[in-house]
Amino acid sequence: MTEELFRDDATLLACAATVLALDEAGVVLDRTVFYPQGGGQAGDAGTLTSEAGAVLVIADTRKHPARPGDISHVPAAGGDLAAFAPGTRVTAHIDAARRQAHRRFHTATHLLCALVPHPVDGCSITATYARLDFHMSEPLDKEALNTGIARLVAEAHAVRDRWISEAELDANPQLVRSMSVQPPRGLGRIRVLEIEGVDLQPCGGTHVANTAEVGAVVVTKIEKKSAMTRRVVLGFAEPLRAPHPQASPHGTGQAGP
Ligand SMILES: [Zn+2]
Description:
By secondary structure, the chain is α+β, with helices and mostly antiparallel strands. The chain has four helices and 15 strands. The strands form four sheets. Strands 2-3-7-6-5-8 form a six-stranded antiparallel β-barrel. The chain has a four-stranded antiparallel beta sheet with strand order 9-10-15-14, with helices on one face. Strands 11-12-13 form a three-stranded antiparallel beta sheet. It starts with a strand and ends in a 21-residue tail after the last strand. Bound molecules: zinc ion. Residues 39, 106, 110, 193, 203, 205 line the site of zinc ion. Zinc ion (ZN) is lined by residues 39, 106, 110, 193, 203, 205.
């Protein structure tokens, strides 16, 4: 069982931990700051450093495929696991830029949910783009969505998580916006993410603390995926940090995996 430090503090970048297990799925720690892929949000990357100084590059993070509650830190190809046997004490460091991108995009997708009053039937949040599939047939206006996002960012709404009981959730079925990702049941309580005055829904992801931190996020594309699906793709409006800052004036431009 891995203690999920990222649930209570999405700004934590490192922690001390002990290796619990090592298998083909990766390295399981007793506690971690690494968010495992889930709820549409990509997993964290980073490094594990042993007390002896060995460094293992972590390419991705997943929920363990067989043991509920365990989180697997997936080593990059070619990583040497010899120094990370169970019992090894390590420092776990996440890639801060990747996490910050996930936080900004994840909160931005919730702003989009507030602007588009239709159920969500798909979601993907990466470090370079995010996309939301809305179950709807009406067209969406890109400029209106960008104006709406910019307004909600400028209004600087507080973002916070809290826990509610399953009974409370059952009494408020409108809280569940997503058709494909139902909140995990059976624990008696469910984490909800509130953007004050804007949006409230079950979510286990990592978010910024205020909509102002979302910054320059814009709709880059709207696609009609099917008769009943409109896909909205988000990107960063500022240029990527690159050796040639003039090379890419319109952000990532990336539209899919
Ligand atoms: Zn969410």
